[in-house]
Write a structure and sequence with these properties.
alpha/beta, seven-stranded mixed β-sheet, 9 helices, membrane, cell membrane, lipopolysaccharide biosynthesis
Length: about 250
C-alpha cells in the first residue's frame, strides 16, 4: 500500500502528460507512492496520452469524468480513490515542479500529527501580468477577510492528510481555500516556497471570472463557515462498573 498518493487533475493537457509523469516518477522514486491522474472531461488526445503513459507503470492510475466538473471536483475524485494516507496535488500543466513534493511531504511530517496541510507558495511566477494581477487582488482580499496567513493559496502544490481533507466541506473552488478550512478543523498549516515555471504546452483553462468575481462569492461562503464553526465535543464511553454482570447473548 502506498503512503503517498499524488493526484493530478487535468483537462485537455495531452502534450503535458508524458513529461510531467516522468518528472513525478523521478521526484518520488524514493517514496512508497501511487500517481492518480483525473481526466476532467478532456476533448483532446489526453486519454490516449494517459493510456500510453501507463505502459510499464503499475503505480499510475487513471480516473475519468465523462464531462468536466472543475478542478475541485477532479481533486476530490482523486482523493476519494486514493490508497495513501497522505495526498500530494499539483497542476497538470507543468508549472508546478514535482521536485518540491518530497520537500512539502517532509515539512508536513516534521510538523507532526497536529499539522494537516503543507501549502506551496510560488516564487518567481511565470504567469502573464494580467493573470498575476488577478491573483494578487484575489489573494489580498482573501487574506484580509480569512486571515489564513497564506500568501498564495492558488498554488496547486499541496501535501495534506487524506483524513483531514475528507473532513472539509466540499464545494467548487475548495482547493483555493484549503489553508483556512484546514485551520478551521483545528490543524496547523505549514508553508514552503516553491519555484514556479512556464506551462509546458497548451493554454490555461481558466479566465477572469474563474479567478476573481466568482471567487468573491466563494469567499463569502468560507467566511460564513468559519464564523459558524463550533468546537467538536469529544464523547467518552462509559465503562461497565467493576463487578457488574456482563450482557447476555440473546438468541434468535
Amino acid at each position: 500500500m502506498p503512503h503517498l498518493s499524488v493526484v493530478v487533475p487535468v483537462k485537455n493537457e495531452a502534450g503535458n502528460i508524458a513529461p510531467l509523469v516522468a518528472e513525478i516518477e523521478a521526484a518520488c522514486a524514493g517514496l512508497a507512492f501511487e500517481l492518480i491522474y483525473v481526466d476532467d472531461g478532456s476533448t483532446d488526445a489526453t486519454p490516449a496520452a494517459l493510456a500510453a503513459a501507463r505502459a510499464g507503470r503499475p503505480w499510475l492510475r487513471v480516473l475519468r469524468h465523462a464531462r468536466s466538473g472543475g478542478q475541485s471536483a477532479a481533486v476530490r475524485s482523486g482523493v476519494r480513490a486514493a490508497r495513501g494516507t497522505v495526498i500530494a496535488t499539483l497542476d497538470g500543466d507543468g508549472q508546478n515542479d514535482p521536485a518540491f513534493i518530497p520537500i512539502l511531504l517532509a515539512g508536513l511530517e516534521a510538523a507532526g500529527p497536529g499539522a494537516g496541510l503543507a501549502q506551496g507558495q510560488r516564487r518567481g511566477r511565470k504567469d502573464g501580468r494580467f493573470k498575476m494581477l488577478q491573483s494578487r487582488i484575489a489573494n489580498g482580499v482573501r487574506g484580509r477577510i480569512l486571515k489564513d496567513s497564506t500568501r498564495d493559496t492558488g498554488c496547486g502544490l499541496k501535501v495534506f492528510r487524506r483524513a483531514v481533507y475528507l473532513r472539509l466541506p466540499y464545494f467548487d473552488a475548495l482547493h483555493r481555500f484549503m489553508p483556512a478550512l484546514v485551520a478551521r478543523e483545528g490543524f496547523a498549516v505549514v508553508h514552503r516556497d516553491v519555484v514556479d515555471r512556464p506551462r509546458l504546452t497548451g493554454v490555461s483553462n481558466y479566465g477572469l471570472f474563474d479567478r476573481l468575481w466568482v471567487g468573491l462569492l466563494d469567499l463569502a461562503g468560507v467566511w460564513w463557515l468559519i464564523r459558524r464553526k463550533r468546537a467538536d465535543p469529544r464523547p467518552e464511553e462509559i465503562a461497565i462498573p467493576a463487578g457488574a454482570p456482563a450482557d447476555q447473548d440473546v438468541g434468535c
